[in-house]
Amino acid sequence: MTARGEGRALAHVAWIAFGGLAVALVDFAQLGWWATPTLILFGALALAAVFDARYLVIPDGPLIILLLLGLATLPRDGDETALRLAAAAGGYGALRAIDAAYRLLRGRAGLGLADAHLLGLAGLWLGPAALPGCLLVAVVSAFVSAFIAARDGALGRLTQPIPFGPHLALGFWLCWSLGPLEPG
Description:
Helix content: over 70%
Number of helices: 8
Number of strands: 0
Low-confidence stretches: none
Radius of gyration: 16 Å
Largest sheet: none
Distance between the termini: 34 Å
C-alpha cells in the first residue's frame, strides 16, 4: 500500500510508528504494569502527530496527559528523577533556543511552542540518554518528509511551514519502544 495525496510526505512516520507499536506488543506480557502507560503514550503521541500534521498545532490535551503520566511514572530514585527533570528542561530549552535563534535570523517563528513542550516531555519520559536520539530521529524524519513533499510539488514555497510534531512523536515513540540510540 502506498500513500497518495497530501499525507504522502508523512506516510513513513505512520509506518515506522506502527512498527514500533508491533515491537512493543510482542513484548506486551513482559511490560507488566508499564503496558498501560505505553499504550497511553502511543495514543497521545498519535493524536498529537495527527493534529499537527493536519492543522499545524498540537492540542493541549495529549500534552497534559503525557505530563501527568510522565510525572506519575517518575522513578522513586531521587537521582534518576532529577536526571529526567533536567532532561525535560533541557529538551524544552533546546528547542526554544533554536526557535529564538531562527526568529532572530529570519524574523519569524521556526518552531511551535508545542514542539518544545513535546521534546521536554520526551526528556521527562526517556531521560537524558535517549533525548539526542529522539531529536536525531525527528530531524532525519523531517528531512525525509520535506524531500518527499518537495519532490511531489507539495511544498509551494520554501517558507511554507511543515509540521515537526509528527517527527518528534516518532522519535519519542521509537526511543521509548526500542530504547535509546547508542553510538557504535
